[in-house]
């Protein structure tokens, strides 16, 4: 019987990976069970014994899990990177964030800004506010959103703007639109890597899934969802 491959991935890559899974299942007859959490939660749960076959998370976290013996040594491969972007509700007035000053002005002018405080993107954004010297002015406007729902919260009207990986913004359409990526001077790409479990139930099937997700055949599909190959 075909074993089910357990994929445990970061929420930010979910919109890009989901459309690929049915294609893989059709091509191979394997089945893939999916679980998604914020990057730090992925690592924490695997450390605590969460069973998985393949993980997609930040490269440093994959390396940490390999050092702990949870990820098979030498199985790590680069998956891609995702840019940080700004979201607003569909139909909102056009907003300029093409320069550092325009970006700062947009944040200072907004009534509320949603962000994922517990995720990789939220950590970067908090530090960025300090670096730009606008933390004291902007922090009272911040709306903490958990569970990868930042872009959706903007669509529901819970915040005027959202700062979140571009993949999540594109996935929240048509209720949400991408204002644009952060200006180049402020951009921080979130890198992702794939690792195979040291205890994979079907090592060969899991290797096939890893190779499929990193193959050039899916580059265009990933790019359309906001994932850039490194």
From TrEMBL:
Source taxon at top rank: Bacteria
Q: Which SUPFAM superfamilies match?
A: Periplasmic binding protein-like II
One protein family per Pfam: SBP_bac_11
Gene3D superfamilies in the record? Periplasmic binding protein-like II
UniProt xrefs under InterPro entries? ModA/WtpA
* Stated name of the protein: Molybdate ABC transporter substrate-binding protein
> In which organism is this protein found?
Rhizobium anhuiense
Lineage here is: Bacteria, Pseudomonadati, Pseudomonadota, Alphaproteobacteria, Hyphomicrobiales
């Amino acid at each position: 019987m075909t074993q089910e491959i357990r994929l445990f991935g970061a929420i930010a890559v979910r919109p890009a990976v989901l459309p690929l899974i049915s294609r893989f299942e059709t091509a191979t007859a394997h089945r893939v069970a999916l679980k998604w959490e914020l990057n730090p939660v992925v690592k924490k749960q695997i450390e605590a014994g969460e069973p998985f076959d393949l993980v997609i998370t930040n490269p440093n976290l994959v390396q940490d899990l390999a050092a702990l013996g949870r990820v098979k040594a030498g199985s790590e491969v680069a998956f891609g990177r995702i840019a940080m972007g700004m979201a607003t509700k569909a139909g909102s007035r056009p907003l300029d964030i093409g320069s550092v000053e325009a970006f700062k002005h947009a944040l200072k002018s907004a009534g509320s800004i949603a962000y994922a405080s517990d995720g990789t993107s939220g950590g970067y954004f908090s530090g960025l506010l300090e670096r730009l010297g606008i933390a004291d002015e902007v922090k009272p406007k911040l709306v903490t959103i958990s569970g990868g729902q930042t872009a959706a919260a903007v669509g529901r009207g819970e915040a005027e703007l959202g700062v979140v990986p571009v993949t999540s913004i594109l996935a929240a359409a048509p209720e949400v639109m991408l204002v644009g990526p952060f200006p180049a001077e402020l951009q921080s790409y979130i890198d992702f890597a794939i690792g195979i479990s040291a205890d994979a139930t079907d090592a060969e099937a899991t290797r096939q899934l890893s190779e499929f997700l990193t193959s050039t055949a899916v580059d265009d599909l990933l790019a359309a969802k906001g994932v850039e190959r490194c």
